[in-house]
Fold each of these.
Amino acid sequence: MNITVKKTSPATQATKVITDSTAPRQTGAKLVVRALEAQGVTHVFGIPGAKIDAVFDALVDSKIKTVVCRHEQNAAFIAGGIGRMTGKAGVAIATSGPGVSNLVTGLATANSEGDPMVALGGAAPTSESLKLVHQGLDGVSVCRPVTKYSVSVGASDAVGEVIGNAFRAAESGRPGAAYVNLPKDIMTAPCAHDVLMPPTFSGPGPADDAAIAEAARLINAAENPVVLLGLLASKLANADAVREFIGRNNLPVVGTFQSAGALSAHLLENFGGRVGQLANQPADELLDSADLVITIGYDPIEYPPSDWNRTNPRKLIHVDILPADLDNCYRPCVELQGNIAATLNLLTPLLRRANRSAVSDNILRQIISHREELAKAAAELVGTPIHPMRLVHELQPFLNTDITLSLDMGSFHLWLARHLYSFKPRQILITNGQQTLGVALPWAIAASIVRPAEKVLSISGDGGFLFSAAELETAVRLKQNIVHMVWIDGSYDMVGVQEMAKYGRTSGVDLGPVDVVKYAEAFGATGLMIRSPEEITPVLKRALDHRDGPVIIGVHVDYRDNHKLFEMAHQDRFH
């Protein structure tokens, strides 16, 4: 008997593998996880539920570590922190209904802070999307206002496309948040398509040559140009070019809170300080003196133009990945849109500036002298509760080592953002876009994952601490050697100070006491207290050297001078 063997092409063989009933069936959920792996995702953070459990099940067979959190909001914070430090989107995952809505604050924070993250949310089956069902929610509509990209996967064939485009949206341009809605039936349905990856080489080049030449002409002709650094100036990929641009041309510079770390230590004499929140810092005087301002990686949400450029007719040069958001107080005459580092590398050699102007040089000398006086005065602050500037003074030496510092929002944040110096990109993680309470501890968890060889310190007020304090259990479970410091005063002080200035009294700001040492111990962490200024450095060293899980440090803080954060203009004097 003759037997005929029919040859098949490799493509036919590949199709047979997918359709063969004996092969493991690829589902939408499995393709989601394969797509995450292809994007280089190593961890996902979230809480499971019935509408998203197919994805959680697929994660079991992957290389990705699933980190269960105690609240979806904190999962989103951690994902955003991953994105800020790596430039690659962190991933949060939640079930439908309240699981998705709990992600919103984290998405809004990441989107306004320029932190790439992708959130995956479960959803009711497509056949029930218009019905009132258990945990029914239009997650796409809920998340659209706080993301760059918010879509629902409409069919199993679209899974790879949607996930690929979500990462591209989150990581490109000015980074931000993306949300993907994953209906339950599509996650369990067969899916024949493969992972969709972006091109190996993509992204913008430098700004237009003519625009660069015009910017150089304006800078060379200016009497007193000043650089204003924003968030993207502190991005690792941009920092070297920023430093060369400023250092080679001896330019005076100020920075927003989120630009922390963009400058190196040898440029400190060019640095007027940080600006933000209120136009009352010495750096604001330097910025105000400029006849030309060059903004680099700046977004108006960091420091609204109406606060620093309301009436000044000077020219503006905008250097950023995106075009400027034009308003009455921010109208650049030259816009250098493109890759920031590549643009600065072309602009820098065209400049012919060796000396600072007499005006900026005089202001900078005063700032340097004042900086030295303030450090000396801070070292002499004694007594308890402890003055914030004494804490700043004691913390500064720790920033010279391999340490990541994440800050929550509150009065303490202003003291640190204004007076604590960093010379490493993204060493200090500061919230300024939404000014969100509760980010510090989740960001510390993220830092411990991204930078396992570094020490990690996070700081919050006692008001913000309990917003995310339950995540201490996650840090304990992960055996992370992080340190979280709580500045205690028993109130939402930053709100109270502003209320007192407006109304002569406070409302709704007083809190009850929390024993942070016992709180830490209840979670299996270590709790310590700083009881005098002399104990600050020894306790911090002991905590940072601890290698048996998280440490919580409490310190009672004297906030009697906090009103000066909002009152003083171009000076800081504490007594």
Amino acid sequence: MSALLPPKPLATSARHTRPAKPAVNKTTPAAANAAAASFAALTAKLDYMSSLDVDNIRRAYRFADEAHLGQLRNSGEPYITHPIAVAQQCAEWKLDAQALMAALLHDAMEDCGVTKPELIERFGPSVAELVDGLTKLEKLEFNTREENQAESFRKMLLAMARDVRVILIKLADRTHNMRTLGDAPREKWARISRETLDIYVPIAHRLGLNTTYRELQELSFQHLHPWRYATLSKALLKARGRRRDVIKRVRAEVESAFASENIAVQISGREKTLYSIYRKMDEKHLSFAQVTDIYGFRVIVDRLNACYTAMGVLHQHYKPLPGKFKDYIAIPKINGYQSLHTTLVGPFGTNIEFQMRTEAMHVVAESGVAAHWLYKAKDPTSDASQRLGSQWLQSLLDIQHETRDAAEFWDHVKIDLFPDAVYVFTPKSQIMAMPRGATIVDFAYAIHSDIGHRAVAAKVNGEQVPLRSELHNGDVIEIITTDVASPNPGWLSFIRTGKARSKIRHHLKTMALVESQDLGEKMLSQSLRAEGIEHLPDDSAPNRLLWEKILRFSGNRSRADLLTDIGLGKRIASMVAKRIVVLLAEKGEKPDALLLSRERYTAHESVSQGSLVLDGSEGASVQFANCCKPIPGDGILGYLGRGEALVVHADDCAVAKRLQHRDSERFIAVDWSDEPVRLFETELLITVANGKGVLARVAAALATAEADITHVNMGQERAQDATELRFGIAVRDRAHLAIVLRNVKRTSSVLRVHRIRPGS
């Protein structure tokens, strides 16, 4: 939009004072004639609208014309010619009156100071919302151009998800700006062209707007690489002359073949775009002469079955190239595109692609989501193509719900903008299109968030496979779930889709906060016991005033926030507990002397709070230190970092001792529960006499002792007479570990075995 414009005087509305010396006097005959002629060209395209709609569009034109008074394009034309050109493109898509009004007004808020309330008053809330969705954000707090751009696109895409007319107007706007980019300063060409290729071209493709998609590609290529564009243009012109006779002959033969079969068809030639030729040459390291599929034909028939009949006629006439047949009718592309594709060997060995489709498929192929309005213009009762692209648009809202950061949102969306797809099946034979490289986890989240969260295993074509397995065309996928499962942070390293990534991150963040809140409640309860208070006051009405005073003291907004901050180490539980004791005393509630003495005499000597009992169910809010890997039975200490999880160390861990010396007030006493609910990891160093089957025997000994093997490391050096094996294992407690050690020691070829505790 305004990226292509020189600085312009601001005008708050048509009613406000104009600049003293406007650049163009709109009363001159030349300017008036130019504007009138431009609007006349627009009205000529509005034959599908009612007279009332045309009058409303004319009102919007007059308002925009006044608002842009004195503003010029880089070409020297009155600025109003740009909104009219954008509206003309929207009229070709047969968009409704509100969309055309928004197209005429799309720069009024950004460049003329017109406010949203003013647009609502004059043209209604729908038009104002469309214009607002198209308006870039101009906020001083953005630190970088990238941050500003990410926020602007986030706003535009979310407005698009709510109303797809936003992106159609935006694409029309970008198309006209690219057509006139030659008038802009040369230094802007590369940046604007690259932005168009990276963002608007994929969006146009994703929404099936193939005509716009191809034009934006060509214009971007022309301005990004002018010399290459000119060279390829000359080469294509020469090739077109050399191959004209071949193409003419093929067309005549094909028309004759269809006529002999009494099949009514419309045949049109199709030439590969310069940009697609350039991409093919660049990616496959080909010369121009080696690109053989420059030309093709589009065959339009009157009904779906005739597509397959037409293909049979062509295959009888010319030999098809093996592996070059694609049925996008049975399995449409993600953006709704449908056609049969086949590549045939024509005269003189020339490869020629044919596309067979119906008239309805052709409209969708060229106009994508805009086809909905094209259908409506022909048949107001039709709802054909209304859902084109709707799944992706809905996924934008889902991602936004999970992701509030603009840059992160844009990262997720960029992943989904390139629709190279694989087609897979659910066990009930439902076809699903997934991006190439997508995994089982992506598939699970595409079905439903709950399926993704609870996935533990999967079967592909009846065989069990890892969740990180990539999908391939034709796979039948069954997801196995369990109610106790939850997303694994490790999934983020291999998933492909933005939806899955945002859902997993959101779930992990939410769970971390919930677990931190639970931990904070436990810690505050323990600290209160150390102060002689048996129970933490609940959040009921009698305690509401008490909690209001505590929250004023701590600076938190809610009880849940305070408990979360305690769990994350941002607040010290003992300080909050002492404040609660003071407030309870004001109400007349005194500490229990017996509890106070018992807690103080049994409290851990080296820490400042009462003991917290751990059973392994605490989740991400409690981490067991990798430096010493404590297991039940070891003496332990808890270190509460600032804004981090509670980290549990063995009490003889050297790392913990250094931390305690430097930061003793952040340690709390922790104890093991009598009945831990999971296994805990530790490491063994096993020295063995090298020989056949020794690794298998050691693994069998560990399995017999019911220890889970988490990893094995045999080192990089070649095996000697005596070799060290490092096993990661999971055990219940120290008693279980003792059984494991005895079992391994009895194994033949084992010379020594001991537990590794590097931090102790």
Amino acid sequence: MYTTSQPDPVRLEIFKNLYQFIAEQMGIVLQNTATSVNIKERLDFSCAIFDASGLLVANAPHIPVHLGSMSESVRSLINDKGNTLKPGNVYLSNNPYNGGTHLPDVTAITPVFLESSDNTSSVPPLFYVASRGHQADIGGITPGSMPPHSTTVEEEGILFDNFLLVEEGNFREFAVRQYLSNHTYPARNSDQNIADFQAQIAANARGVQELRKMVDQYGLQTVQYYMNFVQANAEESVRRAINLLRDGSFIYEMDNGAKIQAKVTIHRENRSATIDFTGTSEQLNSNFNAPKAVTQAAVLYVFRTLVDDNIPLNAGCLNPLEIIIPVGCMLNPTYPAAVVAGNVETSQTIVDALYGALGVMAASQGTMNNFTFGNERYQYYETICGGTGAGIDFDGTDGVHSHMTNSRLTDPEVLESRYPVLLESFSLRLDSGGKGKHPGGNGIIRRIRFLEPMTANILSGHRVVPPFGLNGGEAGLVGRNWIQRQNGTTENLDSTATVEMKPGDVFVIETPGGGGFGKVS
């Protein structure tokens, strides 16, 4: 057993991979047991393990915006429920003001006790496991719970704040069904919600099982020590990366006129950095406000990507970073501000602004191109790929999900068999990446024909402001949303729009290209 202040290097590598492996096992269970397209096909979920204080230890390589913010949800549960946590309990949380990202992303959190302590509640949990899944619909004013024009969080769906889902091993199905239906804007498909919640319970159960096996094999003290060592190792890796950076600042405007101002100051004496968002636009009346946890997740993501070492994203990565986010600005809004676009759109802008301030990478498409459609019977959500920005020594990439999203698109066969639509075409949007010594990646063109009347929504960005190039590289092309009606007429749409689709109408989404880096010689 290693109980010194210095970890054994071989064991450190073993435990690093073991913790990550547990999160990956949870993800496999979640995907295999879920029924929704969102989780089973698009892989819009994340799993992670946390120490006794709720700090992130390790995650599977899932969705960055989930992973960087889940720790806040776990710590909110600890603060809220404290000594009442019991073995066999599972809690639901999606509160954007307590570590949530937006309401469709619902987190199931399970405290982990040793098996020998399962008959007592006086022993505090030793660890926590959590899984966050994007629900296809959680209520709100539009099907899919991604309303383009919400102005309060209540319009975006049903809020769970440490809701007791499983009580000492008993699934509270009646209570959760009641909760899903007794709201101003109730969930439209509670059967699907229940099925996905059960999949998250199963994923967490696998995490509990694997952590207990680790404790049985290595001993509790060793497992806990190496949780600390893994976080300290991540901290040192980030400090080494910071030491290679320089001060910088960047202002990046969004299509709605809001701006994000990021200033990065490097402190060489202790290899730390201050990230200051002072000067960013005030809290908005729209839903492009990003909860503080999302802003923190974006910062964490950027600095993790600058590390060459193979480390799991965890709380240690944040220790060298001081993050200043003024209360009441759009990156740290106050309740009940709407936030659904802040999670998916503003988070992308934060990332690009930070890369711009550091001078390391041109802007990527800077949007998730959130497309939802549905009625009382069907609800569907997808994020759509585009071009990534080029960097000092690399070209951008064509047609991929970038930065804060890491989900995939639904296979055409699954899309068309589960929903009354046809995927008419899906192709690269040539010459949409910015020119440069290293060119930006190309966006895509996606055409979906509707076979039944539906409400469709687009929540996107960079339809007005082009993704910037750096060091003389050109900007990428802006995206475009439009409708081709069956009668031959066309309708251009804004960055955010809600439209009624009739049978035969085609919704066309052209995604932005990434910016180029360096002048063309």
Amino acid sequence: MRRFGLVAFLVVVPWVAGAEESIRGFSPAALEDEHKWEEQARLMADPSAISGYMRHLSAKPHLAGTPNSHEVAEYALGLMKQWGLDAHIEEFDALLPTPTTRLLEMTAPKKFRAKLEEPPVPGDPTSYDKDEVPTYNAYSGSGDVTAPLVYANYGMPGDYEYLAKHSIDVKGKIVITRYGGGWRGLKPRLAAEHGALGCLIYSDPRDDGYWRGDVYPKGAWRNADGVQRGSVVDMTLYPGDPMTPGWASEPGAKRLALSEVRTLMKIPVLPISYGDALPLMRELEGQVPPEEWRGALGITYHVGNGSVKVRLKVEMDNGIHPLYDVIARIPGSQFGDEWVLAGNHHDAWVHGAMDPLSGASTLLETARTLGQLQRKGWHPKRTIMIALWDGEEFGLIGSTEYAEKHADELSRKLIAYINSDSTGKGRLGAGGSHTLEEFVAGIVKDVKDPVTGKPPDWRMEALGSGSDYTSFLQHLGIASLNLGFGDDEGSGGIYHSAYDSYYWYTHFSDTNFVYCKTLSTITVLALMRIAGAALIPLQFTQLTGALEHYADEIAKLQAGGVSLTGLRTAIGHLQRSAREYETSYAHALPRLDRRSEREQAALAQANERLLQFERHMLLEAGLPRRPWFKHAIYAPGSLTGYGVKTLPGIREAVEAGRPEEAAEQARLAEQVLQTLNVQIQAAIRSLNAL
């Protein structure tokens, strides 16, 4: 693999007045000062510092709820304070299950006992750690079951349709599925819904092992012993502490009884390596499934005919454990009650160099850069906050509990939430609110890929779930972004395993941390620009184009079904208002820094409309059957998990064949768009008053 020295920084082009377009939300008069500070910020992020944070943080396993996770939080807190930031830890208590018993054995036609562990690999010092976290799925049910084994491919709805079509019943059986094809938590949920007694999830080498490339430690991909841990809590209903849905899990808070919690798995679930899966899969007989069901285990794949019996025993300690969110703040000099927040989680399944420490270490460098700027005399107009969340791996718990605790204040004050998670090398991944798409484009054109020397290649994607933006975007209606670099570099090969280590990252990913530096710079620029803009930098034409596309997609799902006429009319009105807003914005731009009392009041009114804009995308009653998710435009699918469903109320009703519900959801979405149109028109009037 080609390697780059630590001197391969971002290309910094000195700014010349009048040489480039305005930064969104800044008047021409404010550009010179903003560019002066941005030019300094670009030079501050240091790849070697990011490497140092990762090396320190990944030295020990630090599963949420353990003393090591607390140590990580205290380390980050100490750094934040050292850099001059006002920082503190917010503590929550949450249900964080750990296993007390894990057993998997084949009882017929042969005897075999799975080892259920990840042995050390040569060259990787942390793989020898004696405190390695067991291979398990959090929120598995407890149980001891012996039953015939059935192979169900990825364990997704279409797979069960295939089994039913061929008269293969999983009721009373143990299902084995492979990772991929959909979120892991859906696999045991669907297995249980079809009557299975237990569920095994293994990593097939076709998906992330030797079929893709050399395996670890020779290459980046998953070796025969690698296991993907992960939570199987039903986050399609709600994330966060399963025992406190909708309210913060603070010490002493009311908690549901375990019997009342709807998101826990009822059957035992266990993740296994393909080394442990192969002896089981080799013995299966019966029907040979279609080609798309066949992995790369070097055997003929069979669905099973009842001849293979396995015993699966899982016992869980469903204990309550503390979580530690680290929150830092740089107060705004003019608009202190308007906030922008950047976050990444710090907890990991084991050592977590890629997930999450690549992103967490990068965010720490963002915090250090902002602290340096402060010491040089820079002060943001709005308050900037940095958060390192705990408990993300269990179900976005730290961020969700924080959002639920501070919901009222966040709804009043938070302009935008900027999330990162894992980051590597290659293409810039960007997902989020389309109201921020033009804003992101303005930042990306001002940075350079550290390898190509050109602006990063990117496109804005809609967000489903799977990281800490979920509560901010889909529950509170706060404009959000999720940013990170990555390509098909093999990070899936060590995902949630003990081999996600500093050694792996520095040999197979962003080996010299130059992409981490680039992400840190992008995040710094995003925070500086939102915090410093006279006018909050939202834009609406990209949103209306996305809405039109989403409506077209739904129309293609149905033949003469639910009418979308009202929705399309509302989109058309919104498109016209979006264009009108751009005209008013262009006329107001030179006057954004005027300071008469009337002009200040008009600008404040415009900013209030913009700050609250995404809040009006929320449905008061939430989505059908899962009211925690309230966003009318973006949501994780109830049968996709992490994968996004756009215009979700309508789309999922159409997909499920519920025309009356689809019609009602179309009416509600139309009302949302009408309200958004009112908000844009109000902002236009305020801008025209400048």
